[in-house]
Design a protein that fits this description.
With 199 residues, this protein is mainly α. The chain folds into two domains: 63 residues, no CATH class; 129 residues, no CATH class. The protein has a three-stranded antiparallel β-sheet. It has a two-stranded antiparallel sheet with strand order 4-5.
């Protein structure tokens, strides 16, 4: 489990404490975790002293990251969720909120097929955009870059994969001049299936 995931878990645990004790509870959990993660090999059996973390940094961390709430979600995404049967819990298993940004929690795209991975990158980027501004769209160059990072980029067939999956997007007939991918109704239905699979 990454530090980011542990911090999110600790924030949730601290919420169960009375308001005045939430920050203290979070600090104790985080300090204990950090001490256990970095033991001194020469001092086996001895407890490492708690790491001194300034309370301002702790407060920034707790306030800047967390689960997505209903009030965070754009009305267009709420309609998508209702229509496609995607719950808030489903959403929180694939994205989290940091400050005003929505960021992915998933590592795997749930497939080893290059063409399917490329389409899933586009679908999830469309959802990420929708969470922020209500528009289910993605910049094709950002999709290309993410595919390269995820090692699922097939330069020869990149455009052909979108042309073959044209029903998922509102571009009519695919051309090399297309800069933005927008989801069609079929694309939103496919996105809902992917979200449920990746959670």
């Amino acid at each position: 489990m990454t530090l980011k995931e542990k911090i999110t878990e600790f924030v949730e645990l601290a919420k169960h404490c009375p308001d005045k004790l939430q920050e203290t509870c979070f600090r104790v959990l985080l300090e204990n975790y950090l001490c256990r993660e970095k033991p001194d090999a020469s001092d086996k059996g001895k407890q490492t002293p708690p790491t001194d973390i300034p309370s301002e940094r702790l407060e920034d961390t707790t306030n800047s990251q967390g689960d997505i709430k209903q009030s965070d979600i754009h009305v267009k995404v709420k309609r998508f969720m209702e229509k496609q049967g995607v719950s808030l819990e489903d959403l929180n298993l694939v994205f989290y909120k940091q400050d005003e940004a929505f960021l992915p929690l998933y590592d795997s795209l749930g497939t080893t097929k290059t063409s399917q991975s490329q389409i899933r990158v586009a679908l999830m980027r469309c959802l990420q955009s929708g969470l922020g501004n209500g528009e289910f769209q993605a910049d094709i160059e950002e999709v290309r870059s993410e595919c390269q990072l995820r090692k699922c980029y097939d330069a020869k067939n990149f455009n052909a994969n979108f042309a073959n999956s044209g029903r998922l997007f509102d571009f009519g007939k695919f051309s090399k001049d297309i800069k933005t991918l927008r989801l069609s109704d079929a694309g939103k239905a496919e996105l809902a299936e992917v979200v449920k699979e990746l959670k």
